[in-house]
Amino acid sequence: MLRELDIARVAALAGGRRVAARLGDLGRVRTKGSPTDYVTDVDIDAGVAVLRAIAEETKGARFVVEEREVYDLADASEGSLGDSEVWVVDPLDGTTSFMHGFPCYSVSVALLRDGEPVVGAVYNVPSDELASGAVGQGAWLGDRTVRCSDTHDLREALLVTGFPYDRTRTLDRQLDVLARFLRTPVQGIRRDGSAANDCVHVAAGRADGFWEFGLQPWDTAAGAIICREAGAHISGIDGEPWSATSYGVIAANPVLHARMLELIQSSDMGDSDR
User: Fold this and answer.
1) By residue range, what is the domain housing residue 63?
2) Whose CA is closest to 138, among 113, 160, 120?
3) 3 state DSSP class of 31
4) What is the dihedral of CA 141, 143, 99, 65, to 10 degrees?
5) What is the rounded average pLDDT of the residues 123-152?
6) Confidence category of residue 28, pLDDT binned at 50, 70, 90
7) Of the candidates 145, 173, 204, which is a domain's last residue?
8) Are residues 188 and 216 part of one domain?
9) Which DSSP string do the residues of 80-149 spell out, in sequence order?
10) Is 34 helix (H, G, I), strand (E, B) or coil?
11) How many other C-beta atoms lie within 10 A of the C-beta of residue 18?
12) What total number of domains does the chain contain?
């Protein structure tokens, strides 16, 4: 597993170097799926760098990457989440922040085996921080191990979240849940635009909990294994253990996770998970 962890780290850094080199040079900018969901040439450039770095070290590697045109450009094999082994990549998590020069965006790389994340690396490009984790190896921020916080009281918790691209029912539920947390009250809530980074904040104890609706597997696959190895519990919004089909996530230490889950499920808009 250590070899795969090193590959994930090297690949995340390779993608991050391409992102850093293109700051202020977006190339083409277009939308996909919704008017607020952007993709740039930088997303593609970074994706190619990540896939090539992995393919050079892993014969027959298969991939699931957010931007589909990356497969041909990197001469890489498209896989599926149902594969026995597949690399799941988000080459630029936080594209909108990158476009505006807001310093929070990352490269996320994970290896799934039989649907479970076993290795993950998240490179926070602006802060030059590499978080990583592997089954049985712990969670790391740079060269030091990290653990999630032991905060058990929501009133003492700093939470992080994000807002969905779906600005209809999913957003309505997010706003309802957000209001419930604020009225608890929690100590504070932050939103920075990168779910991968948010998972790392929980793993490192910088934030006590994270929740978000409407996510994709590449948003959280690496963060899921990093959180788990840091002692956090990460699940879908329904409370089931994180999987590649989880539509949203909750991450926190086990006690706080249970309290967050209870509050989220108390929302009277619980039928709008999808």
Assistant:
1) 2-145
2) 120
3) strand
4) -80
5) 98
6) confident
7) 145
8) yes
9) -TTSSEEEEEEEEETHHHHHHT-S--EEEEEEEETTEEEEEEEEETTTTEEEEEETTTEEEETTEE----
10) strand
11) 21
12) 2
Q: Residue 18 is inside which H or E element, if any?
A: helix 2-21
Shared domain for 26 and 128, answered yes or no, is yes
With contact defined as beta carbons under 8 Å apart, do 195 and 251 qualify? no
Confidence band of 272 (pLDDT split at 50, 70, 90): very low
pTM of the model: 0.94
Residue 161, classed as helix, strand or coil, is strand
Burial of 169: CB neighbours in 10 Å, binned 0-12, 13-18, 19+: middle
What is the side-by-side order of every strand in the sheet holding 209-212?
188-190, 158-161, 209-212, 249-252, 233-235
Q: Which amino acid, one-letter code, is at 50?
A: V
Q: What average pLDDT score do residues 237-251 get?
A: 95
**What is residue 242's DSSP assignment?**
P
Section 33-39 average pLDDT: 70
The answer on 54 and 139 residing in a single domain is: yes
